[in-house]
Amino acid sequence: MGPDRWWQTLWPLPVAMHGHRLVHEARRRLQGPLLRQWAARCQRAGHVRAAHARPGALAALGRALADAPRLPDVAGELDFVGWRAPLPVVDWRLPGARPLQVYTAHALDWAEALAAGVARDRNGPHANWLSASLSAWCVQAPVLPKAWEPYVRARRILACLRAAARLPDHPLRPTLLAVAAAAAADLDLMLEGHLRGNHLLADWLGLAAAEAAFGGDGRAQRALLAEWDRQSAADGAHVECSAMYHAQLTEDLLAVAALGEPGGALAGRARRSIGWLAAVRHPDGQVPSFGDSDPDALAALVLTQSALRTATPTATDPTASAWTARGAGGHFVVVHTAPAACVEQPGHAHDDALALEWSYGGARVLADAGLGGYEGDPHRALNRSAASHSTVQVPGRPGLDLWGAFRVGARGEVRAVRAGMADGWQWVAGRFCWPDGRLGHRRLVALGPSGQLALADAVDGPDAAAAEAIGRLIAAPGVTLAPGSARLPDGHSVTLAATGALHVGEGVRFAQRSAVGLGPELRYPVGRRPIWLCLGSEPNDLDRARTVLEDVWAAGET
Fold first, then answer.
1. pLDDT for 9-62, tens place per residue?
2. Fewer CB near the last or first residue (10 Å), C or N of the chain?
3. DSSP codes joined into one string, 351-380
4. Exposed, middle or buried: residue 144 (CB in 10 Å: 0-12, 13-18, 19+)?
5. 267 Cβ partners below 8 Å, 6+ apart?
6. What is d(CA 244, CA 237) in angstroms, rounded to the nearest whole number?
7. Which residues are paired to 364 by β-bridges?
8. For domain 323-555, which architecture applies?
């Protein structure tokens, strides 16, 4: 690993983050030999604090959860991001599991899923599964270091409070409250200032939830509001521009708001956050896969689903996070126009500048390859590369220097973003500049009056002539491609026309994080002269689009 890559990785970070990193590592080294005693002390403190739980706050959260959609049922096993454990789980060492899978297990989101099953059927197996699994976890957790990582503890607070709220008169409720309170003990001394981003927000969300449930002086809520505002883009998006993490943070904020003041400042932030999520969501309910984001991210986020039922999409700011356009009949396009990887927490960024996703008639037609594994997964690098997104790739020349599982070195940047309307076509245009400044990718994307998708791609800069740039449009699941058409899962087809050669090939797919397959994609060469493409319902849609949009393209050359 060369010093230049380390320098490019570390220099953008605020100086304070490096100081927090030193403190974090020192604390971890000191904590290791004393983990059992410290964890046991946290558990004792949890039992004491749980006795002061506020029934009204938990009842309010319980009502919010009862009014929300039903959680997916648990049938005989728990799924920790692809690692399956038969119920009840009695060995929480989880031998063979990867770090992300272990962290997910110790966050105890499964406790809420099982509690929901108990609430639906008290005579079913969920009560025994929850009791046995939770008892085993409480006994084994004090010697399991990953169970006491700050982010995991913060997630556990919210999971156990939600589970307890679903079981107002069940014998397991005191245990769930004690686990939540134990997770909050000393968490304010372990805030993840060395990572910031969604980790630091999750820490404050957990502490604010504990404060609302067990009482406090309001410090956690005030800090949460300040950090939420600091990490929110101009249009309400979370600054990491991952719809999945945005949705998870929103779900937690809704839970904290329900515990505290349903109509207060937290709820106001949640409404703004929901408005952005409503704006970027596809007509089929799935979210874009830009960065680390699972299209099915909303499946278990029931408070967010409930809020989205009545949400009004807010205008997205193409210079802050993304650009979206909607038309009648379920037509929709979203383009990733965020200026660059999040400075403080770029670990969830992908090389997907100016990538797009398109829905036609309510069905997704173009998407990306999906979300692959995290740390320890051999496919992580491929999943983060431009080859897994509907954008332009220059083989051997990444727009972001992605290395390790979550590191980013040299970074390109999206610039000169413009958006507008021309004769019924909603359009956005921008330019991505490679880190060395010698190569750029210009793209124009437009949604037509009848839902047509038009786009133009070109490369520019001193190295453009030698760049062997490849445009790639990835078919959504169930869509089949031919050089002149795309066939949708319902049997309907859209025409496809271009001013250059189109090739249908197979690209990687991540249907599940642990499963890799292949799927169809369109590829086309991209040079200095723009190549125009149009997908729509009429053979002459391309000519119509160029007539309207060529002036828009030309205006970006000045």
1. 998 999 999 999 999 999 888 878 888 899 999 999 999 999 999 999 999 999
2. C
3. S-TT-EEEEETTEEEEE--B----TT-TTH
4. middle
5. 257, 261
6. 11
7. 359
8. Distorted Sandwich (2.70)
